[in-house]
């Protein structure tokens, strides 16, 4: 602790000038970094936004990914979500069947517990509270070991 205080004291003696925010000025370069031309800025912008993204990427898998046993699909515009977000495939299927978007309070329950089985007869729409109760009752009665959520 004493060593740190000594170093700070020595540094304080060397650089006594400070800006209005209390930062040392003397001996420190303030805003003297390299300035890019507009042409260079444009090139940097293009390289960051267009290179190796989406279908251009070497690791593109068709916009499909998997998370916690659920198949996620890349969508461009889905009920106020930002562009390029992923949505569970079963939600898209149920919304297409209903002809409307699911409400925030609505959850898709997979009857057989397989979140990749998106057949009509395997999916049931319920409220979040009913879905939690349903899984609680199934665990209590020893009916399968289904994961909550879905």
Describe this structure in words.
This protein has helices spanning 2-14, 38-50, 89-98, 128-140, and strands spanning 64-67, 70-75, 85-88, 106-110, 123-127. The two termini are 53 Å apart. The chain has a domain at 64-140. The model is unreliable at 1-13 and 146-150 (pLDDT under 50). Strand 1 (64-67) and strand 2 form a beta hairpin. The protein is an alpha+beta fold and 150 residues long. It has a 3-stranded antiparallel sheet with strand order 1-2-3. The chain contains 4 helices and 5 strands, in the order ααβββαββα. Helix content is 33%, strand content 16%. The protein is elongated.
Segments where pLDDT lies below 50 for 5+ residues? 1-13, 146-150
Distance between the termini: 53 Å
Mean pLDDT across all residues, rounded? Answer: 76
> Could you say which overall geometry the principal axes of the C-alpha atoms support?
elongated
Helix proportion range:
25-40%
Largest sheet: 3 strands, antiparallel
Written as H for each helix and E for each strand, in order along the chain, the element string is HHEEEHEEH
Q: Which class best fits the helix and strand makeup?
A: alpha+beta
- Rounded to an integer in angstroms, the radius of gyration calculated over CA atoms is 28 Å
Number of strands: 5
Write the layout of secondary structure elements.
Layout: H1 2-14, H2 38-50, E1 64-67, E2 70-75, E3 85-88, H3 89-98, E4 106-110, E5 123-127, H4 128-140
Antiparallel strand pairs: 1-2, 2-3, 4-5
């Amino acid at each position: 602790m004493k060593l740190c205080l000594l170093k700070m004291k020595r540094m304080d003696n060397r650089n006594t000038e400070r800006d209005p925010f209390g930062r040392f000025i003397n001996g420190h370069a303030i805003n003297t970094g390299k300035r890019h031309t507009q042409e260079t800025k444009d090139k940097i912008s293009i390289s960051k936004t267009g290179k190796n993204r989406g279908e251009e990427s070497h690791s593109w898998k068709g916009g499909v990914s998997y998370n916690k046993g659920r198949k996620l699909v890349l969508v461009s515009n889905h009920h106020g979500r930002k562009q390029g977000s992923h949505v569970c495939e079963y939600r898209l299927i149920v919304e297409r069947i209903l002809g409307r978007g699911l409400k925030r309070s609505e959850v898709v329950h997979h009857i057989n517990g397989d979140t990749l089985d998106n057949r009509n007869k395997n999916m049931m729409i319920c409220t979040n509270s009913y879905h939690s109760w349903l899984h609680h009752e199934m665990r209590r009665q020893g009916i399968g070991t289904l994961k909550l959520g879905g």
